[in-house]
């Protein structure tokens, strides 16, 4: 039975949180001040600690620092009534793993626990009739442009926003890339969900601007009720979280990534295959400058492949062979092998969303830029 320690000086709040865990078969420990909480934590070594900020004796920041120094594996969730960006940032810097606002619900807690302690099994809940129904996958392209957004009469047919695709399947809302199209998606989600919370997963192919520049304008990220899991591979020169935070630093943007009120969990992918709920995801690295991936989502209704930035190897390798004196036959064999791998990755998918940055004539002038033509 997993153990949780609740450190909270308000008896009513402490009882309410304890009740949530007791119903889920957790072993609950309670403390009414920071010092008592530290003593219980060091003696019992719980898997999870819920901690208030403003408490007698040791405050929440002090508790976080001490726990993080002495109990590395223990996860800490600060639960506070203070909705200040500086408090959230300070708590995370002190060692907290998550910052939730009171009044707390089990929905928010369980989602945070799933991220922080995935090895702890959850008690299954009966599904509602709506959840049990098989809902066909839904795909909507909110942004399809590359490089920069291009609004205007000339882009009315396909839209002028940069990369963002929404996939709904098997109870999941999965967003592919966070180009400027994600702004309109966010507004649509706000209208659809109203006061209800959202649980979203955002898959980033790579961190070039046209794939992340809409994130600061994604309105669900500004709602403390929402749970957003952001997944992607490490960048060529910096980690995923550092890159995403960089575009929101002063003087570029008035709100930092850490100050977003939503419960945003950024995870760097290490595996090529991984699940998002019941959706199985398979990735493949693309031929594009830096670290760039494409994804294939396998749902109960079919599969969709998403490769927005990728250049075929044929002409590229032949051009390099000519320039660098490489054997053309070897270059052609390499290109053929890589194309075969791509075909195998895409084989049998129901929907393929692929890079078509250039016309064939334009591509001849842009070989080596990391993009495809319509026919390649």
SSE layout and pairing:
Elements: E1 3-7, H1 11-23, E2 27-31, H2 34-44, E3 48-51, H3 60-70, E4 75-80, H4 85-94, E5 98-101, H5 106-116, H6 129-132, E6 138-143, E7 164-169, E8 172-176, H7 181-193, E9 199-203, H8 209-212, E10 227-232, H9 240-246, E11 263-268, E12 273-276, E13 279-285, E14 293-299, E15 302-307, H10 313-324, H11 328-346, E16 351-354, H12 360-363
Parallel strand pairs: 1-2, 1-3, 3-4, 4-5, 8-9, 9-10, 10-11, 15-16
Antiparallel strand pairs: 6-7, 7-8, 12-13, 13-14, 14-15
Helix pairs in contact: 2-3, 10-11
What are its keywords?
376 residues, alpha/beta, Rossmann fold, Metallo-beta-lactamase, Chain A, 3 domains, six-stranded mixed β-sheet, five-stranded parallel β-sheet, 12 helices
Number of domains: 3
Report the major sheet: 6 strands, mixed
Strand runs, count: 16
> What is the CA-atom radius of gyration, in angstroms?
24 Å
Low-confidence residue ranges:
126-134
Task: Supply the CATH architecture of the largest domain.
Answer: 4-Layer Sandwich
**Mean pLDDT across all amino acids:** 89
Give the spatial strand order of the biggest sheet.
6-7-8-9-10-11
- The CATH H-level superfamily of the largest domain is Ribonuclease Z/Hydroxyacylglutathione hydrolase-like
CATH topology annotation of the largest domain: Metallo-beta-lactamase, Chain A
- The structural class is alpha/beta
Helix content: 25-40%
Number of helices: 12
Shape: elongated
* Terminal Cα span: 56 Å
């Amino acid at each position: 039975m997993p153990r949780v320690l609740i450190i909270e000086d308000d008896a009513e709040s402490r009882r309410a949180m304890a009740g949530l865990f007791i119903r889920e078969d957790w072993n609950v420990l309670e403390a009414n001040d920071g010092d008592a909480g530290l003593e219980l934590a060091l003696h019992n070594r719980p898997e999870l600690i819920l901690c208030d900020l403003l408490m007698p004796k040791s405050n929440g920041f002090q508790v976080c620092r001490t726990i993080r120094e002495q109990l590395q594996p223990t996860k800490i969730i600060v639960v506070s009534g203070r909705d200040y960006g500086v408090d959230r940032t300070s708590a995370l810097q002190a060692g907290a793993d998550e910052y939730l606002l009171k009044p707390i619900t089990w929905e928010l807690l369980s989602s945070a626990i799933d991220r922080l302690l995935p090895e702890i099994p959850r008690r299954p809940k009966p599904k509602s009739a709506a959840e049990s129904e098989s809902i066909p996958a839904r795909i909507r392209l909110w942004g399809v442009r590359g490089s920069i957004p291009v609004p205007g009469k000339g882009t009315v047919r396909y839209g002028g926003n940069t990369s963002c695709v929404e996939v709904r399947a098997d109870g999941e809302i999965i967003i592919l890339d966070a180009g400027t199209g994600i702004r309109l998606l966010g507004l649509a989600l706000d209208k659809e969900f109203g006061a209800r919370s959202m649980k979203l997963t955002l898959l980033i192919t790579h961190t070039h601007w046209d794939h992340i520049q809409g994130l600061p304008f994604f309105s669900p990220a500004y709602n403390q009720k929402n749970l957003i899991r952001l997944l992607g591979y490490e960048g060529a020169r910096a980690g995923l979280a550092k890159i995403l935070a960089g575009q929101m630093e002063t003087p570029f943007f008035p709100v930092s990534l850490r100050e977003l009120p939503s419960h945003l969990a950024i995870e760097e992918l290490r595996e090529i295959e991984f699940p998002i709920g019941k959706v199985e995801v398979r990735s493949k690295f693309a031929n594009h400058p830096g670290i760039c991936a494409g994804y294939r989502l396998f749902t109960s209704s079919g599969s969709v492949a998403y490769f927005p930035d990728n250049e075929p190897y044929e002409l590229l390798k032949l051009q390099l062979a000519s320039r660098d004196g490489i054997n053309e036959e070897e270059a052609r064999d390499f290109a053929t092998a890589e194309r075969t791998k791509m075909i195998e990755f895409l084989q049998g998918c129901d929907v393929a969303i692929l890079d078509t940055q250039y016309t064939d004539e334009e591509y001849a002038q842009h070989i080596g830029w990391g993009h495809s033509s319509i026919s390649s």
